[in-house]
Amino acid sequence: MQSPRVAQQPEARIKPATTTPLSWRAGLEDGRLWRAGAILLGGALLTGGLRRRSFGGLVLAFAGEELIRQGVSGKSYLFQAVSERLKPGEVVEIASAVTIGKSADEVYRRWRKPGTMQQILGGVVTVTELDGNRAHWRLNGPLDTRLEWDMALVEDRPGERVRWKASSEARVPVEALVEFRAAPANQGTEVLLRLTMAPPGAAIAQQVVKVLGVVPSAIEGKVLRRFKSLVETGEIPTTRRQPACRGDGRDE
Amino acid sequence: MRALCWHGVNDLRVGRVADPEILNPHDVILRVTMSATCGSDLHFIDGFLPTMREGDVIGHEFMGEVVETGPEVRKVKKGDRVVVPSCIACGGCWYCEHDLFSLCDNTNPRWELQEPLLGYPTAGIFGYTHAFGGYAGSHAEYVRVPFADNGCFKVPEGLRDDQVIFISDAVPTGYMGADFCNIQPGDVVAVWGCGGVGLMAQKSAFLLGAERVIAIDRFPERLRLAREQIGAETLNYEEVDVVEALREMTGGRGPDACIDAVGMEAHGTTLDYTVDRVKQALHVVTDRGPALRQAILACRKGGTLSVLGVYGVMDTFPMGALMNKGLTVRTAQQHGHHYVPRLLELAAEGKLDSSFLLTHRLSLDEAPHGYDLFKHKEDGCVRAVFVP
Fold it and tell me: In B147-195, which ranges are continuous DSSP H helix?
């Protein structure tokens, strides 16, 4: 589903880490203790995340993977991002596509229907529709990371494209573009989702980019696949709460 | 309820789990009346197919009685006696509309586990690893069936459970394998494997007009079933060179179509098997390929290779022979929904009786023992079936 137009993962866009120790890590021998801790914590997050078998678990797993990488390499994109400014104008862009067997108008209507986004992202993101053109997003990331921001509708061409942009005061400079095109031979509609994140200088926002930056492709894929199933079948496939010989005899 | 759960490599136990619930509007709950062992279960039991979790309920070949229906279920009713294909298909996506049900776009909630390996995710399968959706399986008292209107097929009056159970998986898989061969009058079809799927592929090849069917295996009792129940000619690959024997039996041409009903845990007698076995033991590779390689070498020029055996990341097979001989390759997990109605008709008409595959009938509590018998082909076991 990852579009070939995307040449690089977001990590690749972020400058390599410096070795400048951050103040709170100073005093730990070359950060070795911290690194060991990062590996342990990362491992726990990764396995715990994979065990959770949920979208939130996926986010946890990605975060764990990032922590392990930091522990092994001694480089932390996250902390480096906090301590350093990215070049102005450096942009992370991710795109993916899915084909849905319905008309562009129908697919567009479903996309714009209040509640659709919440249904698709349930668990990891809470979307509160403020009115037809504004929505409040809350992302519950790993390690109690919580991000909140408002998204505003900046372009709306029924059956063709919808563009949302984080409001100017949001600390998450993200833009989402959804395009609808007729697929060949009456196969329905090609839906293209493009997320653009422009990291500003503010340290906190950089952290946000990192938290988002390890998962946007997964988020995108999930959003589009779940949306497709919802439109084509009226339901999103799930195994939540099914019987299993674990915990209290069922999955959470 | 009681259910057979996977707890690790070669570690199956019956345990208590929660009863299944309706989770989506097109779901039903079945009370399982029969659930069968299948050779493809052995791949994750032996630890060669990844993405199992401790505590997973397994089993994917089953039938039962509908006890609860979701709000959007239209065709299936409480009390219906139904048989269910092992792949879960929505019935509405492009793939389902083109009868490619095991490639359904909308039934795998864990697509992200499959995409890196396959490029695109496939349909979910009951009780068959998280890469295939992680759905709880049928070796249990009850099972949840998503998209029931599409996946539950009513059993015609007058058929016993043992005549129906294999129409869930072994029969449609075998029939599809023969259907892939585009059988013409006079065709000779060779089938590697005389387990449930292999025997059904042989039977189906005759039903679809094959002149001769040649069955290949190493277990005398299974070869005897192929001769006596199907009317196939047989080759024991431990006694003869299969490729040479097939050439001789077909006037030097080779079989018109070759069906691999063995898959990734094939056994062999030649060096390539030994090499694969060592690699697999070291987990350098996940798949062993002697049956597939033989089928490619034995097939006549311009013939058809039909692959039913399950493979993981198999990538060592004679591409040169495949390409230079101009073979056609057809393969898939079973598109059961396409075949089951016809197979139930054939069964009702008495033209297809698969009940002879059922060699061992056990209670659910005896399921771990049933898998032992089945895996080691002890006591003439072809298929063990559990009655919860």
Answer: 148-151, 161-164, 170-179
